[in-house]
Design goal:
two-stranded antiparallel ribbon; globular; binds fe (ii) ion
């Protein structure tokens, strides 16, 4: 069932709990049409007018709500006009309630690093990002949800905390937030802050979607690898978020050591359990 969250400032549906559409599962999903609320796709994998990626997307979109999620918009750097044109075409095909990408930079117009690099959190960077988000939302013609990335280092130049920066950007650009709860926890462990402070500092009425994922633990840091189940601490943080904002569109990301689709459905069931528990605790 889809409904609009009462705590959200945007009139967008709560899609339920979904998973990322990944190549190893394309055939099974198309053939078996498993029970699932919604799917997220990697935008860059489906920005073609034809071919097999488009065919598998068309099959998916016939049966499920689909939201495009990008990794190369580079809101902290320069946008490629051709990329924006193709993104608009994808969004026009899917008619999603929002599309998403990351609060990061991925290189210059000439040199892309194919990584989601955090930004220095300064007023000048904020103003540039706000201007780009406004332009991207205008050119794509849809609400953009901006996602927090995981971090491993702080910039000396940053003058505000990440959560303040993200909140200021979202308010000034009038965009939505895709809150990656695993990224908050990974960054909190790596940089030494309390993840609850992150939730305290955000305009939570702008959160339209949540990402949940697993990560790898090393002796001195945690790495956002999306190749494990969601850990207990991230489930606890998710529950706290749902206690604060109510039902929210939630997406399980699993991009490495991708398990059978049935294992993803188990993770969806676990997310549903935690969301239901948090909603009971909220009353
Ligand atoms: Fe994410």
């Amino acid at each position: 069932m889809q409904y609009v969250a009462s705590t959200s400032r945007f009139s967008v549906p709560v899609l339920g709990i979904g998973v990322g559409y990944r190549v190893p599962h394309y055939q099974q999903v198309v053939e078996e049409r498993p029970e699932l609320d919604w799917f997220e796709i990697l935008s860059e994998n489906h920005m073609t007018e034809g071919g097999s990626p488009r065919w598998y997307l068309e099959q998916l979109a016939e049966r499920y709500p689909v939201v495009p999620h990008g990794v190369s918009l580079s809101l902290g750097g320069a946008q490629d006009p051709e990329h924006l044109r193709r993104l608009r075409s994808l969004v026009d095909f899917l008619h999603p309630p929002w599309f998403s990408d990351h609060l990061c930079w991925t290189g210059t117009r000439e040199h892309r690093v194919h990584d989601l690099l955090p930004l220095p959190y300064t007023p000048a960077i904020r103003d540039g990002v706000v201007e780009r988000i406004r332009r991207v939302q205008g050119e794509v013609g849809r609400l953009l949800a901006v996602e927090n990335v995981s971090a491993y280092l702080n910039y000396k130049d940053s003058t505000v905390a990440e959560w303040d920066f993200l909140g200021e950007v979202a308010e000034a650009a009038d965009c939505a937030i895709l809150l990656d709860v695993n990224n908050i926890f990974v960054s909190a462990c790596n940089l030494g802050f309390d993840p609850m402070i992150y939730l305290d500092g955000l305009p939570l009425d702008r959160v339209v979607q949540v990402h949940l994922a697993g990560h790898s633990v090393f002796p001195k840091y945690r790495l956002d690898t999306h190749d494990h189940p969601v850990c207990d601490e991230v489930w606890a943080l998710y529950r706290e978020l749902v206690r604060r904002i109510g039902p929210v569109s939630t997406l399980i990301e699993w991009d490495g050591n991708i398990p059978p689709f049935e294992r993803l459905q188990e993770e969806v069931a676990t997310a549903r359990f935690h969301q239901d528990q948090a909603l009971k605790e909220r009353r």
